[in-house]
């Protein structure tokens, strides 16, 4: 008998084990047993051949309708064509060159699994030279097809060299030799939640006797994934609350109260509520860990500034970490403008009761960098705004009390942790994001944070209308888009034109563009440096056009943004460097070129740059994606709603959900194999409650050593660290 830790070569032999390792990263019996089927087919059930996409690698369950052999027209030899149907009228042609002998196997009426890449010839979908395994005729009991004898046929995530039926055979061998698997889940939890034993679940998910058995097995294994993540987060939260932090209580008379009295507008109810939550957290003896999420333009910056001023009033400093120099400079300008004299203490026109606001970026000259470092080290700068340059060793804080991280997802874990390490005691932390986060993602990824949501827009903000411009189908619509932009400029407003690429042969420009939905090659994405001159000579001739992208020198980027903000430019042609934080209320129209090259949440962020003043905003999404394609449906969804939470769920549907566990950051495959952050909200909530109860009684899980080990398997050290530092 074997265990989950047994190397596969001892169970399957060296050759098979090497193939599984090389192509699927499977090395142990546990790796293989946890390589769950992608789906389950039933003989007689259709595969929906008509939905197959050209270029897609597929495994199709079908029945041979007919097989014919004929001479080839263009070259010598014979061609075997096999017509396969799926039970609903969907037909697929299998072609084999000079393999007429296969006609003896592929007789009409035989069922089989056929794997290959979908191509199209004269309007018909086909697989050229596919791998296949035939399902036994009634009465046959060959060991080769034993794994397919049940009603449900598992179809595994496979590779060209290791098809699904090979994996199924390997799983059968592994399960037949596997000793009963110990169950790490406390018996009380298993009984209370009506969950299968782990050993039963692992066997049933590969060889289910019925759909009901499969459902129970999947539910148990989903539970394990949710429980492992929630235990990791809850334990982190408990440890964080045990750390000491210097309380930063609000004061009756200070910079914050003066700032509030001088605000030229009323705070929204949401801003007041969030402000009270943050103020309470800052006053505690344990570090605040709070996520502030709100739509673009909901007023997060003011909430963060009020928190920073509360810390300044207590004698401490606050650091705001921004992902780009453009955004850092924008924050510096907007916060300095909001504070007025309160942000210029020590200057001739400054308020002596205020503080100083320092900007620290990598592009500062030596003298400016020394001056900023001195202000930070002395404590004269109560508010410090910067990019990753804040992490450099020569930036020392006098008393860092609060770290505000803007657009957290753009920073690596190590960068955020390095900034927090600059404080004598763990500082309070406020994470801000304008990307709406579905509840289950917040519960799964940010489950260790308290969450505040700003769901109101300040008064005076205008609605944003969004429309898809099908440039390929209706080029006249694109012409109309440029005329519409000129109309806005003629009315005294400004515009953005956003492109997905910089141009001029940057490293990213050399990447091979992914294929379109139909498998055909794509042209390179449109580039700022190519589009700007075409617009200047063509539809936008005579307008004042500026260019902004990440490869410009920092002083040039800042100069362009200042010119645009001052109204000296009519149109800014830019990359997504304008995605977050750029605030120009006079900009009313945005045209996004090759909009299908952007993600849903990214498009939502981009269009938030317009409609920030009293005039209505307009966002035009230009695309060559054809109607009915996945890309076009995604753009139609963005155009149909400004509800960021609906769009965030759509975005999540289209990404690998496991990326939230740091798989993207680590470059490794996701360990959320079954759990759906969209569909399993109730189960995740139940797992979280059980995790809270268990950790409250046994914080280190000393009474549950098997459970602690299972967490290490499902949330490995790298991902645990990602969650720990998050």
Automatic annotation (TrEMBL):
SUPFAM superfamilies: Nucleic acid-binding proteins, P-loop containing nucleoside triphosphate hydrolases
GO molecular function: 3'-5' DNA helicase activity; ATP binding; ATP hydrolysis activity; DNA binding
Lineage: Bacteria, Bacillati, Actinomycetota, Actinomycetes, Micromonosporales
Transmembrane domains' residue ranges: none
Catalytic activity, reaction form: Couples ATP hydrolysis with the unwinding of duplex DNA by translocating in the 3'-5' direction; ATP + H2O = ADP + phosphate + H(+)
Domain Helicase C-terminal, residue spans: 477-653
Organism: Asanoa hainanensis
Biological processes annotated in GO: DNA recombination; DNA repair
EC number: 5.6.2.4
CDD domains in alphabetical order: RecG_wedge_OBF
Region annotation Disordered: where it falls in the sequence: 502-523
Protein's recorded name: ATP-dependent DNA helicase RecG
């Amino acid at each position: 008998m074997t265990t989950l830790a047994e190397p596969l070569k001892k169970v399957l032999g060296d050759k098979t084990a090497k193939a599984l390792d090389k192509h699927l990263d499977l090395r142990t019996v546990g790796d293989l047993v946890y390589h769950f089927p992608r789906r389950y087919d039933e003989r007689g059930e259709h595969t929906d051949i008509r939905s197959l996409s050209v270029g897609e690698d597929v495994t199709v369950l079908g029945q041979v309708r007919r097989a014919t052999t004929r001479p080839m027209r263009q070259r010598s030899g014979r061609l075997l064509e096999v017509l396969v149907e799926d039970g609903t009228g969907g037909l697929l042609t299998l072609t084999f060159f000079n393999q007429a002998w296969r006609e003896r196997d592929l007789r009409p009426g035989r069922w089989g699994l056929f794997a290959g890449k979908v191509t199209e010839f004269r309007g018909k979908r086909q697989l050229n030279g596919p791998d296949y395994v035939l399902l036994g005729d009634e009465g046959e009991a060959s060991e080769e097809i034993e794994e397919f004898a049940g009603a449900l046929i598992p179809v595994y995530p496979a590779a060209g060299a290791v098809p699904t039926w090979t994996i199924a055979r390997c799983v059968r061998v592994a399960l037949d030799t596997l000793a009963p698997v110990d169950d790490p889940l406390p018996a009380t939890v298993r009984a209370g939640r009506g969950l299968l034993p782990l050993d039963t679940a692992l066997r049933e998910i590969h060889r289910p006797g019925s759909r009901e058995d499969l459902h129970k097995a999947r539910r148990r294994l989903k539970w394990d994934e949710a429980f492992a993540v929630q235990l990791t987060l809850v334990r982190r939260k408990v440890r964080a609350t045990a750390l000491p932090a210097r309380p930063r209580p609000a004061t009756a008379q200070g910079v914050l109260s003066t700032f509030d009295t001088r605000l030229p507008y009323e705070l929204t109810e949401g801003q007041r509520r969030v402000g009270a939550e943050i103020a309470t957290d800052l006053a505690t003896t344990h570090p605040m860990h709070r996520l502030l999420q709100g739509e673009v333009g909901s007023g997060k910056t003011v909430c963060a500034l009020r928190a920073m001023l509360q810390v300044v009033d207590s004698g401490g400093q606050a650091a705001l970490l921004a992902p780009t120099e453009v955004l850092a400079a924008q924050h510096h300008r907007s916060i300095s403008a909001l504070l007025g004299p309160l942000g210029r203490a020590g200057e001739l026109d400054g308020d002596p009761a205020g503080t100083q606001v320092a900007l620290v970026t990598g592009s500062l000259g030596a003298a400016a960098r020394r001056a900023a470092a001195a202000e930070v080290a002395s404590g004269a700068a109560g508010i410090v705004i910067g990019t990753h340059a804040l992490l450099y060793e020569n930036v020392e804080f006098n008393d860092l009390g609060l770290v505000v991280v803007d657009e957290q997802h753009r920073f690596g874990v190590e960068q955020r942790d390095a900034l927090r390490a600059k404080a004598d005691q763990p500082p309070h932390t406020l994470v801000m994001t304008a990307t709406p986060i579905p509840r289950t993602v917040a519960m799964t990824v940010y489950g260790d944070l308290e969450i505040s949501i700003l769901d109101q827009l300040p008064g005076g903000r205008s609605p944003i209308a969004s429309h898809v411009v099908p440039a390929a189908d209706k080029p006249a619509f694109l012409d109309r888009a440029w005329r519409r932009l000129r109309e806005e400029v003629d009315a005294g407003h400004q515009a953005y034109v956003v492109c997905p690429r910089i141009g001029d042969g940057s490293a990213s420009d050399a990447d091979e563009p992914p294929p379109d939905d139909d498998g055909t090659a794509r042209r390179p994405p449109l580039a700022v440096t190519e589009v700007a001159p075409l617009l200047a000579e063509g539809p936008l001739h005579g307008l004042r056009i500026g260019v902004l992208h990440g490869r410009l020198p920092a002083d040039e980027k800042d100069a362009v943004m200042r010119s645009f903000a001052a109204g000296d430019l009519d149109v800014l042609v830019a990359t997504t460097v304008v995605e977050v934080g750029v605030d120009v209320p006079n900009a009313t129209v945005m045209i996004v070129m090759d909009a299908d090259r952007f993600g849903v949440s990214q498009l939502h962020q981009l269009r938030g740059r317009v409609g920030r003043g009293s005039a209505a905003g307009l966002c035009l999404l230009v695309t060559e994606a054809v109607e009915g394609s996945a890309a076009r449906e995604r753009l139609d969804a963005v155009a149909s709603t400004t509800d960021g939470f609906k769009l965030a769920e759509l975005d999540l549907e289209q990404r690998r959900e496991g990326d939230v566990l740091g798989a993207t950051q680590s470059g490794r495959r996701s360990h959320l194999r079954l759990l759906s952050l969209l569909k399993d909200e109730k189960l995740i909530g139940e797992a979280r409650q059980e995790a809270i109860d268990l950790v409250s009684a046994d914080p280190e899980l000393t009474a549950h050593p098997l459970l602690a080990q299972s967490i290490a398997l499902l949330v490995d050290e790298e991902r645990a660290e990602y969650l720990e530092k998050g």
